[in-house]
Amino acid sequence: MMLDLGPFSEEKFDPKKWINSACHARHPEDSLDKHLVDMEMKLQMVSEEIAASLEEQSSAALLRVPRATRDVIRLRDDASSLRGSISGILQKLKKAEGSSAESIAALAKVDTVKQRMEAAYETLQDAAGLTQLSSTVEDVFASGDLPRAAETLANMRHCLSAVGEVAEFANVRKQLEVLEDRLDSMVQPRLTDALSNRRVDVAQDLRGILIRIGRFKSLEHHYTKVHLKPIKKLWEEFETRQKANKLASDKSEMERPSSNPEFQSSLRAASFSTWLPAFYDELLLYLEQEWKWCTVAFPDDYKSLVPKLLIETMAAIGGSFVSRINLVTADVVPETKALAKGILDILSGDMPKNIEIQTKHLDALIELHNMTGTFARNIQHLFSESDLRSLMDTLKAVYLPYESFKQKYGQIERAILSSEISGVDLRGAVARGVGAQGIELSETVRRMEESIPQIILLLEAAVERCISFTGGSEADELILALDDIMLQYIAALQETLKSLRAVCGVNFADAGSKKEMGLDKREGTQSARRADLISNEEEWSIIQGALQILTVADCLTSRSSVFEASLRATLARLSTSLSLSVFGSSLDPNQSHVVCNDGNEELSSAGRAALDVAAVRLIDVPEKARKLFNLLEQSKDPRFHALPHASQRVAAFADTVNELVYDVLISKVRQRLSDVSRFPVWSSVEQQSAFPLPTFSTYPQAYVTSVGEYLLTLPQQLEPLAEGIAGNDGSNDEAQFFATEWMFKVAEGATALFMEQLRGIQYLTDRGAQQLSVDIDYLSNVLSALSMPIPPVLSTFQTCFSTPRDQLRDLVKSDSGDQLDALTANLVCKMRRVSLD
């Protein structure tokens, strides 16, 4: 059995575990005792071998110790000697460093002198060469070798830059400028011919000549000049066709005066809006051909040459383009078509005052703008390899004819909306004869309610027009226009509410605003007399019509709130779409310039697709962009009001409607209670009779029964409106709350008016007090039937009036303040001439 000594060297060696493992490893036929004896013997033998080996190695180590000690001493002596040698070397290096620095400084001065001498030598050579070139340049020009002439002029330019501002060569500098102009003029006809005849090799050689003398701008100029002529011819084709068609039409009218209208219409010139897409197609095809040719002829310059051509083209036809756009907007409306005046003429005031900007004018403008937008997208695709700055300048030039219209967009939109609102039927109510007030009221309220969705649709259309035409870049002006128009519309509704007061039979004195509304006392009296003539059916219809005004206020509030929320969402979308950072350029609101990423390879296709009309327009107007982006950032706040003034006016209108409805509902109560304090029954005395008769009526008087019956029928009056609320996506609980709220409001008002009349009574007899007690008791029963609590003041009146006069003093004195209102009780004592002293 072989012994594995590895386990004995482990830190966690367990003898028992090792023995057990060795026993388990024995052969099954071997006895355990024999196996243990053998294992013990082997362990003892291995132990003796290890002890012998350890003793041998220890003896050898003891013999090596003296020799190792001698080696250590020798090494220490060598190290001390080496340290001394190194110290001497360091001292020598320090001395050498001082002398070397002086030598290096001297060498540097010598090198500087050498460089200056070489520069002077080269300058002298350039001066000599410049003199020689100046004397031979005429011969070079005379030879007609343009590349050699360009090389000569380039060398002269180089020599002049080396010589610097030397007075002796001032004439040469002027001569060089003249010679460069001369060479440029010699290249021009050849370059024009090469560009016109598509001669690639010649064009490239001539380009090299111009580049050699630093005249790349001249190349751009000649290239644009050559290709601008055919493009302008395309543009002028419209006017040529117009004139030809006009001559043909005039000739046909002279030869065939009785010809049918269809033939005459076929001879008329096509409109600019139908011709413009064809022009754009021709122009795009021309630019595509130039792009392909320039990629071969000018592989280093085609990305800027062709966009420059389009920019110059739009600048050349820009004035004519604006005039044609203006005329197209005039043709859509007969009045402006007859005068040949468009939007710009109307805005400038060069038109009769009765002619206003209409939606058709702006729609025609947007239609043309959409055509230009399609062309701009094609151009963006064609020029996709150009750098971002060049591409933005090109797109800006494409949209340039519309800039004058966009700058006045807010004024245009305000004029359109104002005109459209004036066309909405908002006639005020007209006072009619007795029996027709309800119909007039109902018709007026119907017109008011129907006008609200019409106005909201007009405002929504204005938002769509702003996005379509300006891409949202005029959103700030749009919001101002919408706010102003909403104020104008709400002012018209307010005027209509004023006219409804007379129809409802409510004078302004009842509303506490007689002086403000300009109604005198005579008019108020006449209104009260007319109210006396109104039948119950007419009164019912007036109340129902007045209640319908609440739906007008509710509709205006909800629809304006929804529109404002939609407008905020639109502004939030604009904030995202107008973020220029997504395509490699950023418009920092805190800076006055645009930061562009000129690395064309880093611009994603999605980023370039974001170059819409608004982004291109805002690039060069940082102040406007900063103002717009601040507005868009504010719109993300839930507390932001897109139409701040209109929101306040809507709330004010709702309050005015509530006041009017309340005045209508309380009007009958006010009329019945107007003279209660002056009734003679309160001061009447008891009449002597031979029979014991009651001194007062046991029934309530007509004025209070009339008020009570009216209050009890009020829920029926409110029921149709409550059902309408429940039917218009409203809950039954909401409808019930609405009816209860108004019923309580009118009942509380009636109670307050009644108590006010009670306080106005000067003298009250026992008979009057008992009658008044019956009246109050009846009104209290009505309030209880309406589930209303009885006011403590009214309860105090009831208690004090029902108490006999001789017991009233004791009642008031004995009250601790829990049952009676002290001020009211004292007032009743004063009325009944009861002294509390």
* Share of helical residues: over 70%
Low-confidence stretches: 121-126, 256-269, 511-531, 581-610
Number of domains: 4
Mean pLDDT: 78
In total, the number of strands is 2
**Which class do the helix and strand fractions yield?**
mainly alpha
Q: What's the assembly state of these chains?
A: single chain
The first-to-last residue Cα distance is 136 Å
Estimated share of beta-strand residues: under 5%
3D shape: flat
Strand order of the largest sheet: 1-2
What does this entry show, briefly?
By secondary structure, this protein is mainly alpha-helical.
Protein architecture, described:
It is a peripheral membrane protein. InterPro entries: COG7 (IPR019335). This is Conserved oligomeric Golgi complex subunit 7. It is found in: Golgi apparatus membrane. Its main location: Golgi. The radius of gyration is 53 Å and the shape is flat. Strand 1 (585-587) and strand 2 form a beta hairpin. The chain folds into 4 domains: 6-161, no CATH class; 215-407, no CATH class; 431-648, no CATH class; 673-831, no CATH class. 75% of the residues lie in helices and 1% in strands. Residues 121-126, 256-269, 511-531 and 581-610 have low confidence and may be disordered. The chain has 837 residues and is an all-alpha fold. 29% of the residues are buried. The termini are far apart. The protein has a two-stranded antiparallel sheet. It contains 30 helices and 2 strands.
